[in-house]
Amino acid sequence: MVENVIHELTAEEAELYDRQIRLWGLENQKKLRNSRILLAGLNGLGAEIAKNIILAGLKSVTFLDNAKVSKLDFASQFFIPTTEEGKFRAEVSLLRAQALNPMVELTADTGNLSDKDEEFFKKFDVIVITEASIAEQIRIDNICRQNKIKFFAADMWGMFGFSFADLQEHEFAEDIIKHKVISKPHEKVKTEPVKHTTKRTLNFPSLESTINFDFKSQYFAKRMKKTGPAYIVMKILQKFREDENRDPLPAHRDEDIKKLLTIRDSMADANLIPDIYFEHVFGQISPSSAILGGAVAQEVIKTVSQKDAPHYNYFFFDPQTACGFIETIET
Questions:
Q1: Bridge partners, residue 119, by sequence
Q2: Cβ contact 47:78 at 8 Å
Q3: CB-CB contact of 2 with 123 (8 Å)
Q4: Distance (Å, rounded) from C-alpha 227 to C-alpha 224?
């Protein structure tokens, strides 16, 4: 991780971030203001993550993306004007993103994620990866673990999405509310809430270990009855991306659904994952991207500020239940 020297906020910054300072404290805002973030993948989900972390007031955000604007982006990527088709998404996203908060340093890198070496990633405090192959995500997570860089992976397929966090050994402060009795003896019991701040530490497993997790175990099968098959749906979609070198496309809907069902049948019991799970995994849907993007950005903010308990370690948005939930995969 980059060694940060914590600088004091200027009067202009203190005025701009006044509401946030009152919400999570001056020291936490200083931590945010001194953090460098890499965001790889500027699709609709990436734009939602970028919006929220830029507004929070980080030091700098680098957009890394070598993809060019296509018509699919116009359904959810609100930084890109419809006149910019064919140009690099990272570059054309800068203008509108910068308008959100001129105090955050924004840069665009149109290089290929797979060409970036360890020295490149060492420049950042937090790395957020979208749209990458699972092999590439694992490679970067292992680099992050070696250099104590906080790592997030996230993806959105249609209305289904997930995020994963590897914060390694992460220390944070959590406010615990307890109730103190203030009534006198023989009076009706009255209490008032009292806030206590407690410091805690969590140790996160690597992405590689959670991907190789035995989801066919009896233990996980029982738990899946409560949470649903989102973890396996994620693995099926990742496998499709690996096999086809792309995500499911609306133009190939029928063909791609057949491929997804074939992958499902090879990985799990079809009765566990109904066909309907693959009806809405095409493109990216703005409302779902907003939900997942907001959740990921909030986790980045919590991680940098070291305030409140982070998600440990997967978060899924399941369109079949219209719910988001945390799934803990321990190895």
A1: none
A2: yes
A3: yes
A4: 5
Tokens 């980045």 map to which residue? 300
Asked if the bond preceding 66 is cis, omega within 30° of 0, the reply is no
* Distance between CA atoms of residues 123 and 326, nearest Å: 30
96 burial (CB, 10 Å; 0-12 / 13-18 / 19+) is middle
Determine how β-strand 36-40 pairs with β-strand 126-130.
parallel
Q: What is the mean pLDDT of residues 95-122?
A: 95
- Give the separation between CA 282 and CA 256, rounded to whole angstroms: 9
Q: What is the mean pLDDT of residues 134-153?
A: 97
Confidence at residue 91, expressed as pLDDT on a 0 to 100 scale: 96
> 3-state DSSP call for residue 278?
helix
- The residues, ordered by sequence, that sit 6+ positions from 216 with a Cβ below 8 Å of its Cβ are 268
Tens of pLDDT, residue by residue over 202-235, are 999 999 999 998 888 888 878 888 888 999 999 9
**pLDDT over 80 (residue 80):** yes
Measured distance CA(160)–CA(231) in Å, rounded: 11
- pLDDT at residue 7 in the model: 63
pLDDT beyond 90 at 111 = yes
Q: CA-CA distances (angstroms) from residue 87 to 9, 25, 27, 107?
A: 36, 40, 40, 16
